[in-house]
Amino acid sequence: MSVENKQIPDPKQLPYLLNLLDDESAAVRTEIVRHLVSFGPQLKSELAKLPQDMVQSRVMPLEKIMLELDREALVQKWPTWQNATLDLEKLEVALSFLADFQSGLRLQYQTREIGPLLDQLAAEYLAYAKTNDPLELAKFLFEVKGFNGAKTDYYNPQSSNMLYVLHEKKGLPISLSCLYMLVGARAGFVIDGYNTPGHFMAKVDLNGKVFVVDGFNNGKVVEEQDALKNTEPPGVSPAPVSARDIIRRVLNNLINAYQAQGESGHQQLMIDLYRMIQED
């Protein structure tokens, strides 16, 4: 869906445009869609300023318009996450891009950016902390705050959406490990991914001893020597994992989830994003 009209409509006209989306005349509806499309990526932010009942009452026709705009915006900005300096910055930017696309118009969250929510969790932890070590943070996130694995809807694509994870407090193993890593960085901790073939976890080095934290299972903590009993081959520590490795795995999860849901368009988009990393 290309936008040929370069003149951005007046946002004050949006309520009137929305009211005409279900006009009896097909010609009127077509013209209204053309006007809405001309907002480009600005449309989502302008819709967010309107009363949500107004937007939700037109969610189906709006989703059709927004989907193509969001696809174009995601593909265009996708390579830029790799320009960040620090690896965790790359991870957070890429997860933010995916969350923005996945959240669409149906997820009615007051805060629709993951950064402020991660900041808030870090601030709450620092106020709660008694010993201030990464294992205490694990207890805070996975016991006190109640983040846990999405065990009843594992193949829901939203379980890979960090915005959804932060609001609903459930997600895939890799999503919860990323949450732990990103909040931990804000609290001054070094927390790494622990990338085993069947299950993604996180690891911390505390006074020379390595612990593995399983966010999907209530933040269960084991010493690495015990975790290594379940690796393949047994006893071999997983190789260090980068932001690119993590994002590739997140995209693989989304490819499989969208396939299971029969959403071939979304599945192909995730494949395209994966290939863009490979080509780079």
What is the number of beta strands?
6
Summarize model confidence as the mean pLDDT.
Answer: 87
Name the strands of the widest sheet in spatial order: 3-4-5-6
Measure the end-to-end span. Answer: 26 Å
Mass-distribution shape: elongated
Please provide the ordered H/E string of secondary-structure elements: HHHHHHHHEHEHEEEEHHH
* Poorly predicted segments: 1-6
**Proportion of strand residues:** 5-15%
Structural class: alpha+beta
Largest sheet: 4 strands, antiparallel
Helix percentage: 40-55%
Radius of gyration: 21 Å
What's the number of helices?
13
Describe the structure in your own words.
The protein is an alpha+beta fold. The chain has a domain at 85-279. 54% of the residues lie in helices and 9% in strands. It contains 13 helices and six strands. The strands form two sheets. It has a four-stranded antiparallel sheet. Strands 1-2 form a two-stranded parallel sheet. Helix 5 packs antiparallel against helix 6 (87-103). The longest helix is centred in the N-terminal third of the chain and has 19 residues, at 59-77.
